[in-house]
Amino acid sequence: MPVMNQQALTLKGTPDGIVLHPIASSWEKVLDALKSSLDEATGFFQGGRVILELKEQSLDETEFQALRTLLEQHNLELWAVLGGNAAVQHIVRIHGIRTRLPASAPKVTTQPAGNALLVEKTLRSGQSLYFPGHITVIGDINPGAEVTAGGNIIVWGRIRGTVHAGAMGDIDAAIYGLVLNPAQLRIADLITRAPEEKQRGSTKPERALIRDGIIVVEPWKPRG
After folding, report:
1. Per DSSP, what are the bridge partners of residue 98?
2. What's 153's domain CATH number?
């Protein structure tokens, strides 16, 4: 599953593509962290497109080509480069890469609901589900099953397997379940497990989210 190096970069799924935002000043560190994340997320990002979001970072021809090659090795397209200085924008235009997003960009998913995936079945032991946006499962996630999403995870059923929301570093992601009793629960780069007393099972809907730097679980109540 994806593991983000928060000191080097962030990755976030959006309807327009996967936004890559470098944090480290060293481009070598950014590429190393990106390679690590992509290697650990085999099959999770493939076929997507990447939007490189720069501020005033410099990027020469060699560094640009290294990024593009790394993405292509993982079946990813460098679709747009936003920001950067004039030299960066010149390099990008030479290679035919967008420097701004179209007003109505097509969605980065084959799902009719946009940046979300709906699955109507129970996931059994050994089954895995990966998607860069939000995932809704109508069914159970059994022990030994694994669900990884770039956004939120909503399960209209029992969560007893491994679930990872915000897998590309989104600390605002949350996990919702009718019965929240996972083998392992992850949001962004934080990990927790169900308390021992919950192994007997709770029948009340709950949600898990990050608050004050830790994962907390609280009742899931519809907004009234």
Report:
1. 80
2. 2.160.20.70
d(CA 173, CA 41): 18
- Mind listing the pLDDT tens digit of every residue in the chain (224 residues)? 334 445 688 877 776 778 888 988 888 999 998 888 787 766 666 667 889 999 867 889 999 999 999 999 888 889 999 988 888 888 988 988 988 887 644 433 334 345 788 899 999 988 888 887 889 999 999 999 989 888 899 999 999 999 999 887 788 999 999 999 999 999 988 898 765 555 545 568 999 999 999 999 999 876 65
CATH code for position 34: 3.30.750
* pTM summary value: 0.57
Domain shared by 85 and 47, yes or no: yes
- For residue 146, what are the contacts with CB-CB under 8 A and spacing of at least 6? 1, 123, 127, 128, 129, 161, 162, 163, 164
